[in-house]
Design goal:
It is a single chain. Helix content is about 15%, strand content about 30%. Strands 1, 2, 3, 4 and 5 form a five-stranded antiparallel beta sheet that branches.
C-alpha cells in the first residue's frame, strides 16, 4: 500500500517489513526513501491519516504527551 500527503509532498509506502517515506516533487517520487522504518514481528500498520488545518496543532499537543519517536534524515532507526 502507499499513501500520499494532502500537500502531495510525501509518499508513505508500506511493505510487510518496512515503512518507507519518500519525497514527492512535481508528482515524481524520490529515487531513495528519506526514511526507512523497520516493522518488528507482530507489528503492522492499522491505518493512515493526515492532519490538516487546526488538527495539526491538536495532534501535535497530544503526540508530545506520548514521547513520540522523531524521524528524519539525521535520525537513526530504532
Amino acid at each position: 500500500d502507499a499513501y500520499t500527503s494532502p500537500n502531495d509532498d510525501l509518499l508513505v509506502a508500506l511493505t510487510n517489513d518496512y515503512i518507507y517515506i519518500y519525497t514527492l516533487e512535481g508528482g515524481v517520487i524520490s529515487a531513495k526513501p528519506m526514511q526507512k522504518i523497520e516493522l518488528y514481528d507482530g507489528e503492522s500498520v492499522v491505518m493512515a491519516e493526515w492532519a490538516t488545518g487546526s488538527y495539526v496543532y491538536k495532534w501535535g499537543e497530544n503526540f508530545e504527551k506520548l514521547n513520540p519517536k522523531i524521524i528524519g534524515n539525521n535520525q537513526k532507526n530504532r
